[in-house]
Specification:
This protein is of the alpha+beta class. Helices cover 39% and strands 19% of the residues. The protein has 19 helices and 21 strands. Strand 13 and strand 14 form a beta hairpin. Helix 11 packs across helix 13 and helix 13 (281-291) crosses helix 15 (326-332).
């Protein structure tokens, strides 16, 4: 009798182990393959109806799932939608997912390996499955200020970050949109909303301009050329470069004019400090000729040009032309011709200069939190590049402070604080200019980097929307 009972127990235990093993295999090892099956519409509908984790800013949800009275059980809702749209992206049955909703999908839906034990607990406890929350590095006050500093109807982007950590404090772009229009459960209405959004000039709901738009940088690119000059050993603070009003471009009837709105005409030769201070074009073109395109390109690459990466949203690679002719190289040296950058890229250039030549990888995620908000993981600051020597970075910082104190960026000056900066104006064929400011403060102990671009503006409007805005953002960060 005892033997029969033992045998029955062994059979029951074997069957339980088999069922549990099969369930575990399907749940945790075959889940991805099943989910990727094009025929698995049930899985698609179930996934869309999950209690997806929130995207948090300072503990408050800017994207969350709330109960709904339809077949999906939950509706994705975006709070302060226009302010955060380019970061959160949208989660849509009809149009897929974008930005953080896409790249953090495994964490938000609860299928990430980081949530393995949470899924085990939910499986055995019978608790409703729930995804993790993603907490961002964004400071809501700085984010709101940056948003307010771009006028409605103006196309532009602002990035604010910490040079020592790479953490992004603000990232905004206009025009923006309401992701709630694309997250509804009525696909016909959602598609109509998407079609209407596609008519807004300068807007794509699939696209974050701060990390993916490539725009001409104009004279802010002179920081890259100045860094290349210092790193080459061929130029230093005492180097004098001819500073003609117009530089003849070899093999053409054209000339490269100097910047006429500063004080370039006051000197026939210029050192690097004066050339940066007054944003003189002709000395930088000649520096690029002497260094060669390869040296300038290699320095740009040290700042992150030519590489696509994730922060965790995708960052488009900024571009320096492959084999420019001499005239093209002269124009490239002042951020024209085929030089194209993202707004984030110019923040990265300044971050490296501010951080003694060490570029930290930009980062948007502060922590991953379980459904009970217990921290699961938190990214550590990560070195992206050793972009330049500390000596070169410190020299360039000194010159950039002079740009703010005595040069083209005076409107960014803050009493009692040394601000390092550079302005830029890029001419764009068939439309207005790109106006730029990029810089950091305090120069002796940098806490904040700001990168601003306003597109399709005249010179006067660009000047009003860049350096003065940078001053307000820097003050707001330093006063926190």
């Amino acid at each position: 009798m005892n033997q029969a009972i033992r045998s029955a127990w062994l059979v029951a235990l074997a069957m339980f182990t088999l069922v549990l093993g099969s369930l575990t295999f399907v749940q945790f090892f075959e889940a991805e393959a099943l989910a990727d099956n094009d025929w698995n519409n049930r899985s698609l509908l179930q996934d869309f109806g999950k209690n997806r984790g929130s995207i948090l800013v300072d503990g408050r949800a800017v994207a969350e799932s709330v109960p709904s009275n339809d077949q999906f059980n939950y509706q994705r809702v975006y709070n302060e939608p226009n302010l955060y749209a380019h970061l959160t992206g949208f989660y849509s049955l009809a149009n897929g997912a974008t930005q953080l909703e896409s790249v953090m999908a495994d964490e938000l839906s609860g299928t990430s390996d980081d949530l393995f034990y949470d899924r085990i607990v939910q499986l055995f406890s019978g608790a409703q499955a729930q995804g993790a929350s993603v907490e961002l590095t964004i400071d809501p006050e700085i984010q709101q200020l940056a948003w307010d500093l771009i006028p409605d109807g103006q196309q532009g982007s602002i990035v604010v970050m910490e040079p020592g950590t790479g953490n992004i404090l603000a990232m905004v772009s206009k025009p923006s949109y309401d992701p709630n229009l694309l997250a509804g459960h009525d696909t016909a209405v959602v598609l109509e909303n998407l079609e209407e959004l596609s008519t807004v000039p300068g807007l794509s709901p699939y696209f974050n301009p701060a990390t993916e738009s490539l725009v001409a940088p104009g004279s802010v690119f002179k920081l890259v050329v100045a860094a290349a000059a210092l790193e080459s050993g061929e130029f230093d603070a005492d180097s004098e470069i001819p500073n003609p009003a117009v530089l003849d471009l070899p093999g053409t009837d054209a000339g490269l004019p100097n910047f006429v709105n500063g004080g370039c005409a006051s000197r026939t030769t210029a050192d690097l400090e004066f050339a940066l201070e007054q944003s003189c074009n002709t000395p930088f073109a000649q520096i690029a000729w002497e260094l060669g395109a390869q040296a300038v390109r290699e320095q740009a690459d040290e700042f992150g040009f030519g590489e696509t990466f994730n922060i965790p949203v995708r960052v488009e690679s900024s571009q320096f032309p492959a084999e420019p002719s001499e005239p093209e190289l002269a124009q490239s040296a002042i951020g024209q011709f085929d030089v194209r950058v993202t707004p984030l890229q110019m923040a990265m250039v300044n971050s490296a200069i501010a951080n003694d030549g060490v570029l930290m990888k930009p980062n948007l995620v502060k922590a991953l939190r379980a459904p009970d908000l217990e921290r699961i993981s938190a990214p550590e600051p990560e070195v992206f590049r050793e972009s330049m020597s500390a000596e070169s970075a410190n020299q360039l910082t000194e010159w950039m402070v002079n740009v703010v104190n005595n040069g083209t960026a005076r409107a960014a000056a803050i009493p009692g604080v040394d601000v390092a900066g550079k302005t830029g104006t890029a001419e764009v064929s068939g439309q207005g200019d790109n106006a730029w400011f990029t810089g950091f403060a305090p120069a002796d102990d940098p806490q904040v980097v700001v990168s601003i671009v306003m597109q399709n503006v005249d010179i006067a409007t660009g000047a009003q929307l860049t350096s003065p805005s940078a001053k307000q953002l820097i003050e707001a960060v330093l006063n926190k």
